[in-house]
Specification:
Radius of gyration: 22 Å
Oligomer: single chain
Strand content: 15-25%
Largest sheet: 3 strands, mixed
Structural class: alpha/beta
Number of helices: 7
Number of strands: 6
Shape: globular
Strand order of the largest sheet: 1-2-3
Low-confidence stretches: 7-14
Distance between the termini: 85 Å
Length: 213
């Protein structure tokens, strides 16, 4: 058979490059069956996929094993913050490149702070009714909130913390961060963001500072 000399029309089932990129980016989102990702979650997934396929990126191999379980936007004073939730099983991979990945995503979401949090399952005091004999300490309310606190400030480390009882009986958690992190990753500018994100996730008030020398 002779090949036609005129160009043939592309197959109607062929996917355009943007569509292929979107399909591949969707693989970076892990949601419950039947739950559709939000526009923000798709944006975050696409940003992760872009990093993964960028030849010059030094974290592309680590990003390949990372997916998200959710994302939400939070207004903090004069800017917005994006809280990205990761399945706990990939959290170890996230922690390896935490600071670098935050930097890359903040470049893509300009003028927005990015905060990472692992998705943890909390068991209430009625856990025995669910057929669980012993509640692991890591599943208690206190333990989960402590872990969330560490997630929110990471990769900075907590230097010390104390709870202040206010006159009206309310509690304020005062969290001091490691002084050596003060000039890193624009951390000082994020102290208000840390407080807002922690309040959003735990409904608890907290104040983040650096110890005075």
């Amino acid at each position: 058979w002779l090949k036609p000399l005129w160009p043939t029309r592309a197959s109607p089932t062929a996917c355009s490059p943007p569509l292929v990129a979107m399909i591949n980016a969707r693989k970076k989102i892990l949601k419950d069956k039947g739950v559709a990702p939000t526009d923000l979650e798709e944006e975050v997934a696409k940003a992760l996929f872009d990093i993964e396929v960028t030849p010059s990126s030094d974290i592309k191999a680590d990003v390949r094993d990372i997916c998200i379980s959710g994302a939400q936007e939070l207004d903090v004073k004069n800017r917005s913050a994006i809280i990205i939730h990761f399945p706990y099983r990939v959290w170890k991979n996230v922690r390896k490149i935490h600071g670098r990945l935050v930097r890359e995503l903040e470049k893509k979401f300009s003028k927005k702070h990015v905060v990472f949090v692992a998705q943890r399952t909390m068991l209430d005091k009625n856990f025995k009714a669910k057929g669980i004999k012993v509640r692991p300490r890591t599943r208690t309310l206190t333990s989960v909130h402590e872990a969330v606190l560490e997630d929110v400030v990471a990769p900075s480390e907590i230097f010390g913390k104390r709870t202040r009882i206010c006159v009206d009986g309310s509690k304020l958690l005062k969290v001091m961060l490691d002084p050596k992190d003060k000039d890193k990753e624009n951390v000082e500018a994020k102290l208000g963001t840390f407080a807002a994100v922690y309040k959003k996730l735990t409904n608890k008030e907290a104040q983040f500072t650096f110890p005075t020398v």
